Amino acid sequence: MNQRTRVLLASFVALLLMGLAVMIFVHYSGRDDYKLTLIETSGVGLDVKNIHYSGTKAGRLEWELYADSATRLKGSEQVALENVRGLFYSMDGHRYVMRSAKAVIDETVGVVDAAGGVTIDSKDGTLKTRTARYLIKSKRITAGGFVEMTSGKMSVTGTGLDADIEKDTVELQSGVRAVITNEVN
Length: 185
Hints:
The protein is built from 1 helix and 10 strands; from the N terminus they run αββββββββββ. By secondary structure, the protein is mostly beta strands.
């Protein structure tokens, strides 16, 4: 490949990247709560700060992910997120809020894998586990390890979790232990 072809190809790639940056800037320029920073890193396809992902179905918001940073590796459909807050919505309006130190989203497979002290809050209580997986299509949250749930004066622990957001049900798989406290004044 001669030098002129290389220069033209490099110029074309640079223009494409600048066009992408401009499109992202225009999209987020009206939003005060997001600051866009593009960073070029070796082996990384794109690194974006203060990101918001969302998914809709039939025009209705089904899930949202907010993160301090998102990194998409070259040749991969996965995006690694840092300091994550996920919002998952049921058809009847219930909202589940997940927080974790890290998560990986793969929209082609339809999963969000969260790790690093996962906490999920709902109207009924709080759930804590080390790792959890949100299945986008079936709207389920699963976890294979130890799980602790608290609601009011009740604490339930066990191993393995299957939560159905649409049915508003949570099932622990094994080793279930429930403690109910009754404070006497």
